[in-house]
What does this fold into?
Amino acid sequence: MLAVGLSNGKLYIYDDHEPFCLRDKYASHRGRIDSLAWSNDGKSIATVSSERIVYVWDALTLDLVVPIEISVDRIISIAWSPEDNFINAVSVLGTYPTANLSIQSYCVNTSEKLSSCSEEYWNTSWPAVSQDNKFLALASPDGNVQVWDTSTISLVAIV
It folds into this structure.
């Protein structure tokens, strides 16, 4: 299956058994979808928009499982934990060169904020998340890359 988040706030699922077959049902945000992430087990999709809410959807039915209110603006990426029990929201606070990168972790079952950290932010491109969702990488204009552990929300390397 392929998930597509659009600028009109709609989330569509394309079925891989019938190429280019769009499901009749769609999920929707009030603002454009800025980021989406499949859970590792493939059963859920998380989406986020400018409304500062992460929605977790059932991937088969597109029914809303849980909304998670995020306490910061400008979320640029979301990623599931390796066990699919929490979601990390990456945001940028302020503007370059004084901006800070914020990573916040939220429990999927309770919507509770579990932890957060903030670091000086370089003017980076979109973050990249490892296939197993264990690490998040951010590239900087000076050629360095920050590598974050998504389970502990900690910086593990600058390479």
User: Anything to note?
Assistant: Residues 36 and 87 are 11 Å apart (CA to CA). The chain has a mean pLDDT of 79.
